[in-house]
Design goal:
- By secondary structure, the protein is mainly alpha-helical.
- The chain has a domain of 37 residues.
- 82% of the residues lie in helices and 0% in strands.
- It is built from two helices and no strands.
- The termini are far apart.
- The relative contact order is 0.06.
Length: 87
Amino acid sequence: MEEDTTQSTPMGRVWTMVLLSALFVFGVSWFWHWSEMRTIEKRNTKESAKIQANIAYLTEYRDVLREKGVGEAKVRIEQLRKAPYGI
């Protein structure tokens, strides 16, 4: 009598390797994406700070110009550029 037996195949190990390699690729690509986005965020933050500083300069210039005239406004804007934070 012959018995019906199934032979084991290596498909379990193959699928394990496929899933592990997919997980590895996903992890590496996610880390790469995350690091690139942090770089872009830092660059955007620096640009935003520059824009905020320029807005502050222009606002100060406008206010001094309205109150004291062009000559005093030019002097004030030069003072702000030399010591932007009042230090």
